[in-house]
Amino acid sequence: MGFIDDAKDAAQTAGRKAKEAWEDTAERVGDRIDEAKADAEVRKAEAEKESVERRNDFKEQLRD
User: In this structure, what DSSP letter does residue 1 have?
Assistant: First the structure.
């Protein structure tokens, strides 16, 4: 029965490693998605800032 126990342990180890690899991959993908969302928010904020600056410059020109 030692052979069967060894095979069972090997299968459990392989299953555990596969699960860990899947969880790591899922976490990495989630990290990349979070990073992409953060980059998009930064670009949006920068665009909004530029828009406000242009609007303020235009208002200043109208005052002159």
Answer: -
Whole-angstrom distance between the N-terminal and C-terminal Cα of the chain? 94
pLDDT in tens, 19-29: 999 999 999 99
The Cα–Cα gap between 14 and 18 comes to: 6
- The token pair that represents 34 in the structure block: 């979070």
Alpha-carbon Rg for the chain, nearest whole angstrom, is 28
Q: For residue 53, what are its two tokens?
A: 């600056």
Examine the pLDDT at 1 and tell me if it is beyond 80: no
Residue written as token pair 């699960």: 19
| CA 48 to chain CA mean position, Å | 23
Domain definitions of the chain by residue range: 32-64
